[in-house]
Design brief:
The protein has 3 helices and no strands. It is mostly helical. The mean pLDDT is 75.
Length: 64
C-alpha cells in the first residue's frame, strides 16, 4: 500500500469522514438510528416486491 492509502484507512478508523461521502461522519454508518433502519427495511421490501413482480412478468412472457 502507498503512504496515502495508509493515511486514508487510519482516518476512517478514527471516525472521520469517508473519502467518498463528504459531511457524513463515520459513526452514522456504524450506528444507524431506528428511523434509518426503518427506511432501509422499507426500501428492501419495495425492492424485493419489485424483483418478484419482474420475475413473474418474465416467467409469464416465457410461457406465452
Amino acid at each position: 500500500m502507498s503512504d496515502t492509502q495508509d493515511r486514508k484507512f487510519t482516518s476512517q478508523a478514527a471516525g472521520h469522514n469517508l473519502s467518498g461521502e463528504k459531511g457524513i461522519p463515520m459513526e452514522e454508518y456504524e450506528h444507524p438510528t431506528t428511523h434509518q433502519m426503518r427506511i432501509v427495511g422499507q426500501r428492501r421490501n419495495e425492492a424485493e416486491a419489485k424483483l418478484e413482480r419482474q420475475q413473474r412478468e418474465a416467467r409469464s412472457k416465457l410461457h406465452e
